Amino acid sequence: MGGFYMAYLESLCRRRGWRDPLYETYRSSSGYTCLVLVNGREYQTDLAYESDGLAQENAAMRAFMVCRNFSVNGGMLARNGVVQGLPANEHSGRHRRRHGGRSHSVNLSSSSSTASSE
Predict the structure, then answer these.
(1) In which domain of life is the source organism classified (predicted)?
(2) Phi, then psi, of 81 in degrees rounded to 5
């Protein structure tokens, strides 16, 4: 089941007439990371988490914190050298290019289907 920030982010997207958030969860030996696509922009975790749900919640929190002030910051925020909210294309297949030949698993889901799949 999704966390509070995933619900807040989904609600924000609906109020603004945007598509539901799309989550890409990656598993590695250090844990799970997540990238969420919101209104054509990417937001991602800064750390690896022990579950895919925690990684998705952290990515949703980062996206929500930036997008709630979208008219002020244009959907982008730079903090600690990481730029959140870079423009992206949800059909770009980014996860295939980013990891090259390394072994990884990817879980693509929208926020509305995430709650029902767990």
Answers:
(1) Eukaryota
(2) 80, 0
Residues whose CB is less than 8 angstroms from the CB of residue 41 and which lie 6 or more positions away in sequence, other chains included: 75, 76, 85, 86, 87, 88
The per-residue pLDDT for 89 is 66
Residue that is written with structure tokens 């969860």 in the block: 25
List the domains of the chain with CATH numbers. 4-68 (3.30.160.20)
Q: How far apart are CA 52 and CA 77, in angstroms?
A: 24
pTM of the model: 0.65
Tokens, residue 1: 């089941």
**Distance (Å, rounded) from C-alpha 88 to C-alpha 2?**
23
Q: Using one digit for the tens of pLDDT, what is the confidence trace for 22-75?
A: 999 999 999 999 999 999 999 999 999 999 999 999 999 999 998 887 654 455
